[in-house]
Specification:
- The protein is mostly beta strands and 121 residues long.
- It is 3% helix and 53% strand.
- The strands form two sheets. Strands 2, 4, 5, 6, 9, 10 and 11 form a seven-stranded mixed β-sheet that branches. The protein has a four-stranded antiparallel β-sheet with strand order 1-3-8-7.
- Strand 9 and strand 10 form a beta hairpin.
- The radius of gyration is 13 Å and the shape is globular.
- The termini are far apart.
Length: 121
């Protein structure tokens, strides 16, 4: 019963770009905000960006101006466009769904495998 599936990760050079996709089940997509998270080795998982059903967005300071989160309602998919990538962006990226509260997201679902993003210097 996988309800959120991440894809699109890979190995890129610093300054490069990558677009991640989060495929979401119809029932979840229609009524939940979606968030992108990342977890680097030895660090806690952090919220990178969120988008609500009304397409309101919020970003972590570390990615603001470089990453863009968007929603495709026809495909039940949320994207994370990552530009000007830095080695510090290296992490496993996850998506989840829930309720957006201020700058945080209350998640309702189990964490998946995520997708690995590696940025070389």
């Amino acid at each position: 019963q996988v309800q959120l599936v991440e894809s699109g990760g890979g190995l890129v050079q610093a300054g490069g770009s990558l677009r991640l996709s989060c495929a979401v089940s119809r029932t979840i997509f229609s009524v939940n905000a979606i968030g992108w998270y990342r977890q680097a080795p030895g660090k806690q998982r952090e919220l990178v960006a969120t988008i609500t059903t009304g397409a309101n967005t919020n970003y972590a300071d570390s990615v603001k101006g470089r990453f863009t989160i968007s929603r495709d309602n026809a495909k039940n998919t949320v994207y994370l466009q990552m530009n000007s990538l830095k080695p510090e962006d290296t992490a496993v990226y996850y998506c989840n769904a829930g309720k957006a509260v201020s700058t945080t997201l209350i998640t309702y679902y189990d964490w998946g495998q995520g997708t690995q993003v590696t940025v070389s210097s």
